[in-house]
Amino acid sequence: MLEQLFGSxxxxxxxxxxxxxxxxxxxxxxxxxxxxxxxxxxxxxLENLEELGAIKIVEEKGEQKQQKKKYYxxxxxxxxxxxxxxxFQKAQFLLEKKFARAVNKIGKVYYLALTGSFxxxxxxxxxxxxxxxxxxxxxxxxxxxxxxxxxxxxNYTLLDKEEFNYRRSVAxxxxxxxxxxxxxxxxxxxxxxxxxx
Length: 197
Hints:
alpha+beta; Arc Repressor Mutant, subunit A; two-stranded antiparallel ribbon; 8 helices; elongated
């Protein structure tokens, strides 16, 4: 969807990186590796985005005094920065909703939440937790499609309800790290039960 709007997959993927990590600085080669793309395509799109004002060049002195290192970073002063960020967040929101609907179709889902990279938490080991009676093969296929749309790898955990309840009862550290972290809850039939249930 965003590729159609912005005219270039590389441009969209670069904007996703910069808008998701506004304080980070990136080398050209680092971006090339992250996006698994041709260096010339990356350079061309960086020039376009810099000329537009969406990103800026930051130069820092290297170890040798004459050597300057050139980085690229989000330009928070760009007049359309907040609008661009909003478009990308809304596009991701639509993908998340589509993903939740697709998961619901392959079995019974009691809990589905996005965490980790979805909420900017690098210390959380997974990005998706799902609890339900789901085909592992079908769920893995949905994850693969979701990764393709998001243009990044995702770590996930799939638990059946019995294992989830057992881990909760023994205060499993892995599970509680996930449940206690920031997250986007897409489906919840475990914690948000109505009182008459």
